[in-house]
Known about the structure:
- The chain is elongated and about 70 Å long.
- It has two domains: 2-90, 3-Layer(aba) Sandwich (Rossmann fold), CATH 3.40.50.1390; 103-182, no CATH class.
- The chain has helices spanning 2-9, 28-40, 57-90, 117-130, 133-142, 160-166, 175-182, and strands spanning 15-18, 44-47, 103-106, 109-112.
- By secondary structure, the protein is mainly α.
- Strand 1, helix 2 (28-40) and strand 2 (44-47) form a beta-alpha-beta unit.
Amino acid sequence: MLRLLTDIEAGNVDHIVVYKIDRLTRALSDFAKIVDRLDAARASSVSVTQSFNTATSMGRLTLNMLLSFAQFEREVTAERIRDKIAASKKKGFWMGGTVPFGYQPAGRSLKIDETEAPIVRHIYELYHDLGSVRAVAERAEKQGYRTRITATFQMQRRGVEAKIIMGAATPQVDPILVKNILMARRW
Length: 187
């Protein structure tokens, strides 16, 4: 796309021919920028399967309407995907990504890793006693705790481990999972 725009500005392109205009862009704002560049270079875009041309005002109107619907469709699709992921998480399904410390993937869900679970429980106890993520990370490092990538908890304190310690939900850590792994009296 960048090469095409460079060629347009250099005067090497008179017309952009596309199969469908929404293959060029689905964002109305991006298309407006492309049309401005085309106008400046006295060039236009033509769709093979759709009968309009950006060289005419009627063609631009039709194109703007079409692209408005294309952008709407893209945004609705994104909303549906976000809603589907949220609904799946609410049902307890794991939606991929980095597996949180203390868990192992089990199909579409996560199961507690019994070898790491005591460490997670201990980290929660440390946070309850110390009240500081930094202090917990330092203590965890002194006790030799390591993440799966062999990084110390000290190095990871701003990452997922810190969010787990704080009890916050992250895209990978569902509050229900945190509750399940803890099964602690204090929480």
